Amino acid sequence: MTNLALITGASAGIGREACALFARKGYRVIALSRQPTGVESAALEMALDLESFDQIEGLAGALDPEIASAERVILVNNSGYGQFGALRDLSESMWQKQFSTHVFGPIKLAAVCLRLCEQHGIPLRVIAVSSVLSIAPQKMKGAYCAAKSAMNAAHDSFWFDEQGSKSLESVSLVLPGPVATRFREHALAALRPVIERASMAHQEKYEAMEAALAPGARIKPFTASAADVAEKIYRAAEAARPKPRYLVTPQTYIAAFITRFLPHSIQRRLLG
Description:
Layout: E1 2-8, H1 13-24, E2 28-33, E3 44-47, H2 53-58, H3 60-68, E4 70-77, H4 92-120, E5 124-129, H5 142-161, E6 168-176, E7 179-180, H6 183-197, H7 203-213, E8 224-225, H8 226-238, E9 245-248, H9 250-261, H10 264-271
Parallel strand pairs: 1-2, 1-4, 2-3, 4-5, 5-6, 6-9, 7-8
Helix pairs in contact: 1-8, 3-4, 4-5, 6-7
């Protein structure tokens, strides 16, 4: 029997690096993504749309024999993208997609995996890739900040709900700051429909955001690599006593200090 890693958002970036790392460590890796692209390190790829509870539930049949033959299961809820823009300018569907991708879908997938693990007596660890923006919101990124904050709360609540489970070993969250992936490219693509419908009130902010997300824009200091984040994910998977939170990049450590120890009035001046 081997350890099994189920990794969402596996087609690129952090997810792809996590697949490669877990495979090198001897895990059987199942790569889950909306559009499978050929993840060489994965033993198996499956299409998964986190916006569809029916599709997530339908995955149970394919996952059941994989989980039944595993020694331990690691679920990495990594899928995500940034829907930026002023909150007043976002459509209902934009909000819905952010929360389906970061909250509703990942928790449903965790529930399906836990049910299967319980049926077969297999231990499960859940690891979710969140963001520094889940604890330190920024202007013009409110929907993404809200969704990642809700991801944290939902995964913590999942842990509290299921503490009586004989299968669920731990639930951990990995909080990176800026990471060198295609995140900015995808965020820019999601931003453009917002700009088309936006009021003039935030025109200068939209222009600045477009410039910051554009190809060739300046990389922020202390930007991590996808491999750096994958290492923290693997640490949570292998730790004898997994921590509830794993921080990546100096920005996240600074934000954690500010939001823990400083009054909210000062936080707003520092983070605004």
